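Researcher: I'm preparing a figure for a lab meeting and need a structural model of a single chain. I don't have an experimental structure, so a prediction will have to do for now. The sequence is pasted below. Please return the structure as tokens so I can convert it later.
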Amino acid sequence: MKRLLIFSGIILSSIGAFAQSNDIATIKDTVDGNCEMCKKRIEEAAFIKGVKRAEWNVDTHVLTVIYRPSKTDETSILQHVAKAGHSSPKVMATEADYKKLPECCQYKTNSCSH
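Model: Understood. Here is the structure written out token by token.
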């Protein structure tokens, strides 16, 4: 009986771990920005509840986010990034949010000097 309980416990914990691994998704989307300051701002804005990892590439402008679909979704993540002033093809930043960016980070002007 003791062996049966141990075996059952192992099986149940394995099933739980397997179910959790299916609750992971990845998105890649282009996000406008210029520099390392933009990188920090974009990654911090994308890192909301349910996000496990957010990384923006300065050269390619691609934001890669690993997240749990049961806790958030792509639109919510991109809305937070847009609220920080950085547009993507799916969610555009408002002009007011864009104007809050430091001058060197205003990507529409291409005036970043660092």
